[in-house]
Amino acid sequence: MAYAKRCGFKSRLGAVKRKKSGVIISRLIFCSREGLSKSGGNIRSRMSTRVDCKARIILRVVDGGSYTIVNFIEGHSHRFVSDNLQHFMLSNRKLDHGHKKFVLNCVKTNIGPVKSFHLFKELVGGYDKVGCTAVDFKNFARDLRAYVLGSDAQILLNNLFNKREICSDFQFEYAVDSSDKLTRLFWADPLSIQKYDAFGESVSFDATYSTNRYNLIFVPFTGKDNHGSCVTFGAGLISHEDEESYSWVLEKFVECMRRRPRMIITDQDPALKKSVERVLYDTRHRFCMWHIMVKVMDKVPHRLKTDLQFKKDFNRLAWSEFTEPLSFERRWNDLMEKYGLVGDKWFDSMFAQRSYWIPSTTSMSESQNSFFRRYFNRGANLIEFFIHFERAIEAQRNQCDRLNSVDVSCFPKLVTDLAIERHAATVYTSGMFVEVQKQIVSASFSCCILEIRTGVGENVYVVEDGESGKFSVTYNLADYSCNCDCKHFVRCGWLCSHVFCVLKNVKIQRIPDQYILKRWTKGICVGGSTNSGGTDTLSQLYSLAYSCIGLVQGDSVKMEKLFQTLKGVHDSLSVNSSSSSNDDLFNEFYGGAPPEVVDVHPPDIVKTKGSGSRLKSRIEKALRDKNKPKRRCGNCKEMVNHDARNCDQERAVK
């Protein structure tokens, strides 16, 4: 074998003769290109390596148990593989334990086998030094998924049961259909539940598609933490976007969190709307403005699709924060008449549901869905999906830890000399202080008091905002409370520039306690990241190895010393050492072996509302044709997007 490898060809074992006791007495070894490939029949077209090479060697046992060469044909009828191409030879390609662990780690972070191969190539310094090809990486990833085919749902549930045994606060529920196929799943870990207790007043709930091979719809519950960043309270998988499935997930969410949110933001799905009314009956329901605004240009007549003034007028009305109900209705009717939309079914339906989207709400879900898509893979089985989900949550919580670290170690830059700004910098998180600072700066440079009306125990200040108009602020002399008719504090949770203008006028140097919501402050810090705890020796070994390589890079003497040291350790460990089989690696990756008895089967591939065929609009067809490469039509002889079979000129002639 070693001789063949050095020369540049591959050997193949031939016939073996044995004694009755099983001892080999004769062995024939061919060149791998011996013989000719069979031809004929409906077989797949592929190249053959067989050229009827006669090179061979015959070994026979002699006294003492050793072997002697009795026949040796050295000459080959083909060229040997050159040194620079030998790494493509099958005999020189092997996925060792290091390759396999690298592929498994890449799968955890949603890096495909081809990208994993190129990344490994960069680490070792070249394609010829990898020891295998991209196809070998792809085949190993294929075998990984095939290993749990048909049992991934059961293994995932077993893993979730183990999590709950380790931590009783870990919550999950599931449901199956009449064929024992998984149809619904909800889960939330203890830290998510703690975060909901702190930040769960408002929850966004939306469906995300293409996250797993079964097309199960991923439905996370999303909120905002004290930094204004998205935080996940829990998540679910459902097989149908119907009222029953949505109601089930919402019920499990309420049971887990032990209270309903004050407000929930969703899209306009009728089934979801009914589910919210049924389960979250005392929760304020609002539609996501992002979803509404995306649909507007698809619903308007063609004459308005390129009308920039219509877009400006509609956005000005829809996103206005200070429009009162009567004023909104009047301005809406004026807008419909101005652009000839009176009687339009879609706009009439949106006006009928105006209480669900006025005042305006922004989308947390779309931001969170975009975040999760970076971690998910539409071809992943259920266990890989859950691994990707945990990696995404770990990244989300690491970002929260980083922002907490900034709050502890840094102090924001102040813009004014006001004591109230310094006070705000000490109580609010760095992200939220930016929002409060905008209001303080606006109060100092954009707002002015036009009129002060004194009364018994309270004064009314008329404040002119250079950007938005005039607003009335009622200031209580006893408890320093303020009430502005812009309702900014009610909507956002921090004071507006109009109130700050009044507080500045009356020489208040600290934000009144009743206007500092705990959810936006530095003092509230829920849990930490999702690290498993303890010392992971394997991770430390990888980190130490990469660190040593980085320290010696550029110094040839140190590099040679480190190489010899590691080679000596490798050789000593290789003696009497058997590497883990694929099954052992797969069991470690999935958290267990495929069970002999499967009680819960994986679901059928789901057909979601967004799948299947749909009639394309003229604009979509035009954009599609514009991006398609053109070809010469055999009938009209022009470079177009059609051929002679569907040429308009041909049809006209007929």
Summarize the structure.
The chain has 654 residues and is α+β, with helices and mostly antiparallel strands. It is built from 23 helices and 17 strands. It starts with a helix and ends with a helix.
Which tags fit this structure?
654 residues; alpha+beta; Nucleotidyltransferase, domain 5; 6 domains; four-stranded antiparallel β-sheet; 16% strand
Structure description:
- The chain has helices spanning 2-7, 97-108, 113-124, 134-147, 152-166, 190-199, 243-257, 270-279, 289-299, 308-318, 325-338, 345-352, 365-373, 382-409, 419-427, 430-445, 488-492, 497-505, 537-552, 556-574, 582-590, 618-627, 648-653; strands spanning 11-18, 24-31, 56-61, 67-73, 171-176, 182-188, 202-205, 217-224, 230-238, 263-266, 284-287, 447-454, 458-465, 469-476, 482-484, 631-632, 639-640.
- The mean pLDDT is 85.
- It contains 23 helices and 17 strands.
- It folds into six domains: 2-86, no CATH class; 93-147, no CATH class; 152-287 and 363-397, Nucleotidyltransferase, domain 5 (2-Layer Sandwich); 291-356; 430-520, no CATH class; 624-653, no CATH class.
- Helix 2 (97-108) packs across helix 3 (113-124) and helix 3 (113-124) crosses helix 4.
- A hairpin with a 5-residue loop joins strand 3 and strand 4.
- The strands form four sheets. A seven-stranded mixed beta sheet has the order 5-6-9-8-7-10-11, with helices on both faces.
- The radius of gyration is 35 Å and the shape is elongated.
List the helices and strands and how they pair.
Layout: H1 2-7, E1 11-18, E2 24-31, E3 56-61, E4 67-73, H2 97-108, H3 113-124, H4 134-147, H5 152-166, E5 171-176, E6 182-188, H6 190-199, E7 202-205, E8 217-224, E9 230-238, H7 243-257, E10 263-266, H8 270-279, E11 284-287, H9 289-299, H10 308-318, H11 325-338, H12 345-352, H13 365-373, H14 382-409, H15 419-427, H16 430-445, E12 447-454, E13 458-465, E14 469-476, E15 482-484, H17 488-492, H18 497-505, H19 537-552, H20 556-574, H21 582-590, H22 618-627, E16 631-632, E17 639-640, H23 648-653
Parallel strand pairs: 7-10, 10-11
Antiparallel strand pairs: 1-2, 2-3, 3-4, 5-6, 6-9, 7-8, 8-9, 12-13, 13-14, 14-15, 16-17
Helix pairs in contact: 2-3, 3-4, 7-8, 15-16, 16-18
